Structure formats: C-alpha cells, structure tokens
Q: What sequence folds into this?
C-alpha cells in the first residue's frame, strides 16, 4: 500500500494526495474494525456445573459465543430427579437482528435432533433433546448444525463444559445411590 500511496502523492498535487491518503486510511481502519467483530471469543467465565438446591436439575455454566453482530448463550441442563434415567437438553438463546426460523437440527454425525423453538423480541430460544451418547462423543466440543427458512447456523459448546457437566451428573448419581 505504501508504494502506491507514495506514487499517488507525486502524481497528484500535495493537497489532493493528503485527502486521498486520509480516505484510504479511514477505509482500511473501518475494514479492520468490521473484521474484528467477526472473530469469535473464548468463554470468559470458568467452567463450573451446578446442582439445584432441590437436587432435581444439573446445569452447566453458560458459554457465550460472539459472531458478527449477534451472539448466543448455550448451556446444558439435565433433569436428575430420577438419577437412573436423567433427561439431557442443550438450551440456546440466540440474539440476532433477525430470526432464521430454524426447523431442523443435526448433531456432528448427521443424526437428526428433536428440538423446540420459541421466538421472542430478542431472538430465538432453542431447546435440544440429547442422549448421553451424544454428550460422551462431544468431549472436544458439542456441535449442532441447524437449518431454517432464512439460513443455517452452527452452534457450539466447548468440550470442557460437556466433560464437567457429565462428571457432575456421574458424581450426583454415585452420591444418590449411596456408593460414596
């Protein structure tokens, strides 16, 4: 860029070259600012799974994933009121300027997942029903591909969240069965 700018400054008179260089620098700054908004950010909260006071729910810590102008919060929950058969779910709250009207979802192996979708004034709320085997295969991260009338979206939850979540459930089941 610098050789081009220097050539332009020689060819065009000094005042015009200053205006052109100022516009180019401003444009490059704007592009750099926009591109930084597209970068993803690592979770800022420590991974810590909790058990509700009534010991019926296990909840992973929330992972916030920034992408472009929107972001989503994702966390795992399990109904452990019956420790022998807990029910696992992934809850996602997506905050976007528009809805995708998602109507299908698949795990990383391409298996179709059941889910519910609720729209609100801030975005879409998604609740995916999962089985333990999907979570056990996701120690490096849980990936859910979704598709809808207005686009597709890949949702991810880091593996540390999944591993800590499953360890907490296993410990809860062990403690509940009296094996300590």
A:
């Amino acid at each position: 860029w610098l050789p081009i700018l220097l050539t332009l400054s020689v060819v065009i008179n000094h005042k015009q070259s200053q205006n052109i260089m100022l516009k180019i620098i401003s444009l490059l700054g704007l592009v750099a600012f926009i591109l930084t908004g597209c970068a993803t950010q690592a979770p800022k909260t420590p991974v810590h799974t909790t058990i509700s006071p009534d010991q019926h729910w296990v909840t992973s810590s929330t992972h916030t994933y920034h992408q472009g102008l929107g972001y989503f919060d994702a966390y795992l929950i399990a109904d452990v009121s019956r420790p022998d058969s807990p029910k696992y779910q992934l809850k996602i709250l997506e905050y976007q300027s528009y809805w995708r009207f998602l109507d299908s979802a698949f795990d990383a192996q391409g298996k179709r997942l059941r889910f519910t979708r609720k729209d609100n004034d801030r975005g879409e709320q998604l609740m995916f029903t999962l089985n333990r085997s999907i979570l056990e295969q996701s120690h490096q991260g849980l990936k859910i591909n979704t598709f809808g009338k207005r686009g597709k979206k890949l949702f991810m939850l880091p593996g540390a969240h999944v591993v800590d979540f499953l360890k907490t459930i296993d410990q809860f089941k062990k403690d509940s069965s009296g094996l300590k």
User: Anything to note?
Assistant: Residues 95 and 121 are 9 Å apart (CA to CA). The radius of gyration is 24 Å.
